[in-house]
C-alpha cells in the first residue's frame, strides 16, 4: 500500500504494518486477514510508523484503533482475546500445551534453511502422516496450525530464492496441502472494541499507574525506546499512553517477555518475564 500523507482509515480500525518478506509478519498476517494491510519499506525509515511516534522498529506492528501492539506473540494473543467469534485457540489442556510448544518452535531459526527442511520432514512424517486436515484434528484451523505453519509458509513464499529441490511439493505433499488449506481459511477474523487492564499492585517492579516509563526490546533493539505514562501492567503485558506526532493519544502494548521496563529517571527495572 505504501506510505502516504495520512494513515489508513478503515471501518474496523485494524491495520497491520508489515513488509512482504517478514517471516514474523507472515505469522501475524495469517491470523488477521480482515485488517488493512499497510506495507512498509524493508529498511528504515518507515514514515507511516514515524507518524505514530513509535521508536520501536521491528515488523510487524498491529493497530486496533488507537491501540498499538508490538511483537507477534502479543498480537496473536490479543486477536484471540478480542475476536472470540474467530477464536482459534483450544480449551483442552493437552492441546494448549502443543500450541505453546509450536509457538516457540520457529523462534530463532528463521535464518537456518536446514532447520526449515527438518520441519517439513517432521510434519510430513509425524503429525500429518495419519491424514488429518488440521494439527490437532479439529474442525477448523487452531492456533497450533498458525504457530506451526507460519515458518513453512514463509519459506514456500521464497520459492524464487531457493533451489527448486530444497523443499519440493512432491517430497512433502501433506505439508503443502496443509499450507493450502490454512491459506484458504484465514479470512474469518471478527472485530471488537479493545479493552485495557489495570496495573497489578502486587507486581514485583513496584511501578504505579501514571508513572512515566520506557519500554524496549531486551536484546539488540534496546536503543529504540518508546516512552509514555503507564496505564496497564499485568503478568504478560505492559501498556503505556503516548502521543503521536500530531498529538493524538495512543496506547502502546508490549509483552513482558523479551521487553524491558524502565522508570524514567531511575535505572532499568530489568527484563520482566
Automatic annotation (TrEMBL):
Classification via InterPro entries: DUF7962, Glutathione-S-Trfase_C_sf
Pfam families: DUF7962
Domain of life: Eukaryota
Domain DUF7962: 115-190
The protein's name in its UniProt record: DUF7962 domain-containing protein
Source species of the chain: Lentithecium fluviatile CBS 122367
Amino acid at each position: 500500500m505504501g506510505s502516504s500523507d495520512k494513515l489508513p482509515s478503515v471501518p474496523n480500525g485494524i491495520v497491520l504494518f508489515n513488509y512482504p518478506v517478514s517471516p514474523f509478519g507472515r505469522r501475524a498476517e495469517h491470523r488477521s486477514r480482515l485488517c488493512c494491510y499497510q506495507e512498509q519499506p524493508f529498511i528504515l525509515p518507515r514514515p507511516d510508523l514515524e507518524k505514530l511516534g513509535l521508536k520501536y522498529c521491528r515488523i510487524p506492528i498491529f493497530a486496533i484503533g488507537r491501540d498499538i501492539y508490538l511483537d507477534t506473540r502479543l498480537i496473536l494473543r490479543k486477536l484471540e482475546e478480542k475476536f472470540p467469534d474467530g477464536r482459534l485457540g483450544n480449551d483442552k489442556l493437552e492441546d494448549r500445551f502443543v500450541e505453546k510448544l509450536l509457538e516457540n518452535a520457529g523462534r530463532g531459526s528463521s535464518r537456518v534453511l536446514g532447520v526449515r527442511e527438518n520441519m517439513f520432514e517432521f510434519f510430513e512424517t509425524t503429525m500429518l502422516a495419519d491424514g488429518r486436515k488440521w494439527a490437532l484434528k479439529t474442525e477448523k484451523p487452531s492456533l497450533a496450525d498458525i504457530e506451526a505453519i507460519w515458518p513453512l509458509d514463509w519459506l514456500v513464499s521464497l520459492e524464487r530464492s531457493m533451489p527448486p529441490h530444497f523443499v519440493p511439493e512432491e517430497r512433502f505433499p501433506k505439508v503443502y496441502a496443509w499450507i493450502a488449506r490454512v491459506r484458504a481459511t484465514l479470512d474469518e477474523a471478527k472485530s471488537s472494541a479493545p479493552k485495557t487492564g489495570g496495573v497489578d499492585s502486587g507486581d514485583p517492579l513496584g511501578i504505579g499507574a501514571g508513572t512515566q516509563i520506557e519500554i524496549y526490546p531486551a536484546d539488540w533493539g534496546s536503543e529504540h525506546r518508546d516512552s509514555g505514562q503507564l496505564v496497564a501492567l499485568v503478568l504478560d503485558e505492559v501498556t503505556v499512553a503516548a502521543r503521536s506526532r500530531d498529538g493524538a493519544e495512543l496506547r502502546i502494548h508490549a509483552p513482558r517477555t523479551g521487553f524491558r521496563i524502565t522508570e524514567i529517571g531511575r535505572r532499568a527495572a530489568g527484563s520482566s518475564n
